[in-house]
TrEMBL record:
The lineage of its organism: Eukaryota, Cryptophyceae, Cryptomonadales, Cryptomonadaceae, Cryptomonas. It holds the Pfam family LRR_1. Keywords: Leucine-rich repeat, Repeat. It comes from the Eukaryota. This is Uncharacterized protein. Transmembrane segments: none annotated.
Length: 191
């Protein structure tokens, strides 16, 4: 029975898309996908919590990104599982994932209320952030940000915004950041 599989070697099979049913192979411990054309791992791979070895060609990966993949199998599973759980809970925790770009999968979560991106390598946030209209909590501490996009002010439900208040922050200025979420959002809305 396939559901009992522990090792699955699919190298050199010209696979472009993994079926979402892969997530049902919960006893899988080793999955080899090298030398295929896979760019996106289905979120259901996040259900493979016993997976200890996942080998794939990461340089062209779109989701998860090569940065996440570089942190190994556990990081990939955590990333996919966090996004997948976010679809049902409305909360996504992607702290310490080595992210250098905003995860595009976030925009597929229709009712996202909480997003935690602390301890990553993000230097900017996308203007499309304004699409996260249900967002109430956003944490952006220990990142490389020096400014917030003005469109963040369009997230009218945002009540908790955590960012590092440092003198290097340019927009909004340090003095505004020190006054808290309401002041930051008011500043961004007036720009």
């Amino acid at each position: 029975c396939l559901l009992e599989l522990q090792l699955f070697h699919l190298d050199f099979n010209q696979i472009a898309v993994l079926p979402t049913q892969m997530g049902k192979l919960t006893k899988l411990e080793e999955l080899c996908l090298q030398n295929n054309s896979i760019l996106i791992l289905p979120l259901q791979v996040g259900n493979l919590t016993k997976l200890r070895s996942l080998t794939l060609d990461v340089s062209e990966m779109v989701s998860p990104t090569p940065e996440v993949c570089a942190h190994g199998t556990r990081a990939i599973i955590y990333y996919l599982r966090s996004i997948g759980e976010g679809q049902s809970t409305g909360a996504v925790d992607l702290r310490s994932q080595g992210l250098t770009a905003f995860p595009i999968e976030i925009f597929a979560i229709s009712s996202l209320t909480a997003l935690h991106l602390d301890d990553n390598h993000l230097v900017s946030l996308p203007p499309s952030l304004e699409r996260l209209t249900d967002l109430t909590e956003l944490t952006l501490t220990r990142l490389r940000l020096t400014s917030l996009p003005y469109v963040l002010g369009a997230c009218t439900g945002l009540t908790s915004l955590r960012i590092d208040a440092s003198r290097r922050f340019r927009n909004p200025p340090y003095e505004v950041v020190m006054k808290g979420t309401a002041a930051v959002l008011d500043y961004l809305r007036r720009m």
